[in-house]
Amino acid sequence: MEYRPNPDRYSGIMQYRTCGHSGIKLPILSLGLWHNFGSVDNFETATAMVKHAFDNGINHFDLANNYGPIPGSAEENFGRILKRSFINHRDEMLITTKAGHFMWEGPYGDGSSRKNLISSLNQSLKRMQLDYVDVFYSHRYDGFTPIEETLQTLVDIVKQGKALYVGISKYPPRETKFAYEYLKSQNVPCLLHQDRYSMFTRNVEQEILGIAGDNGVGFVGFSPLAQGLLTNKYLHGIPEGSRAARADGFLKIEQVTPAVIEKVKQLNELASNRGQTLAEMALAWALRDNRVTSLIIGASSVAQLDDNLKALNNLQFSNEELDTIERILA
Question: What is each CA distance from 278 to 20, 24, 30, 191, 225, in whole angstroms?
């Protein structure tokens, strides 16, 4: 059966924020394909999540060359979804991908060299069956490639028409400032800076958010639910099948300490008083600062995606609630 998008997808509760000094607007919640879209996952479930996101105003889809497992399979599956269901809607979508982490064997399959970035993007475009991506990120500052080499490669990628805009991800403050200045001097300004941000990971509040704001760069936060910690999953310990219970998960079992669980319980109580789930409140909290352009949410089902979308029903906090959250987190 042919997929027909919801005709009211842009008139619902989704809000859009402008990316710094640009004409691009992002939905304040974007869909990330880091987990649950790889070759080991259910393709029909993945397709249903992309459709549900799009039907609810999420038109920003975030990938990277190594998302899977297996690495690359998330892009490949997303390309299949695009071809099957969204062939007439590409221009409504903002599709982003990245390169810079390990992807293939040998000295050129990792890092931020010109060789790696251009080869990676060519592979990504082939997997997604696209002529270009909207934003291509340098996924990390690797610490050994001259930063000028990495940034000039981003400039050249835009001039080659393989990306409309560029961004950086997880760059330290000093390198961030240099990147913004260099890219601007080449008339290819940085559109987005992506980094981890949640109630439990707030490093970007120290410098990165301010630098982005001062330079007209949008900020996109990933892992806003702290890999599931800021949900009701861990209220009573570590459940079987959760990310912390998996040996290959990014959330490690040693991170789920009694002190963390106690904070989660207190935050959950406050969320309940607000008429929200903990996940909804955590997303609303991370959006309280207008310098945050969008949050990348992940989901394993349409129902879980729906829970995240409900955060949009209550984005306001009283000063008392914000003070309470600070006390709990402290």
Answer: 29, 30, 19, 31, 9
